[in-house]
Amino acid sequence: MKIPQRTYKMRRSCDRDPELPLNILILVLELDTDLEGAGKDLSPYLPLHKAAINGDWKTAESYFQRAPDPDAIKATITGASETALAVAVRSPTRNHFVKKLVDKMSENDLAMVNDYGSTALHIAASSGNTEAAKLLVEKNTCLLYLQNKYKNLPLHVAAARGKRDMVVYLMKVTREDDDAKPFEGESGVRLVQKLIDGGLYDIALNLVKRHSKLAFGNPSPLEAIAQKQSAFPSGARLNYWQCLLYW
């Protein structure tokens, strides 16, 4: 895949837009070739960037062995300040590459963030790459509780994207009694909202059943569903939430 020698100006605005189709978002981010990102010349890392996109571990390993930067494995290689790991986790076809990187990186390396405060786990969550998420969490469980610049945990990101398998996995491994209180207060209300945004109504309902105070969040679950027209397809049988709303 040949990478154009220019910057895609859409990149920063697109990454903030939760409604942007995921396939377009991935394309924009992977073709981000701002070789002067944050005042840093990124051209020496272009071979590594290409290897990460292609899942080419042989090329990446060779690059690490001869790279003048001894910390190249955790270097930021895109204009959005992303590492090779952050680039690779976007597709499950590269998980062999992801595993090799995770094995060689420290727990702190896995917690590195891009310009939007997102770790590799946030990015894997957005892409629905559950296998990559498992590799990351098994090495550093703290990643589950790190918020990005928009106060979203990886779980929030997966919920907003409607990534059911990812949400189920992250909810299973996220501790309710953690100091971050991911399922309570502002974080819990946001999670219910994201689940509804992603069309995961059954998971939202189960969460509210376990944490009843979330039913009184702002907006409330019913208000959030009422604002989502796709929750009421014409002629469809009403689900639990919809029955409550109509009643």
UniProtKB/TrEMBL annotation:
Species this chain originates from? Ilex paraguariensis
**Protein's recorded name:** Uncharacterized protein
Record's Gene3D superfamilies? Ankyrin repeat-containing domain
Repeat region (ANK), residues = 116-140
Q: Which InterPro entries match?
A: Ankyrin_rpt, Ankyrin_rpt-contain_sf
What Pfam families would the database entry show?
Ank_2
Keywords linked to the UniProt accession:
ANK repeat
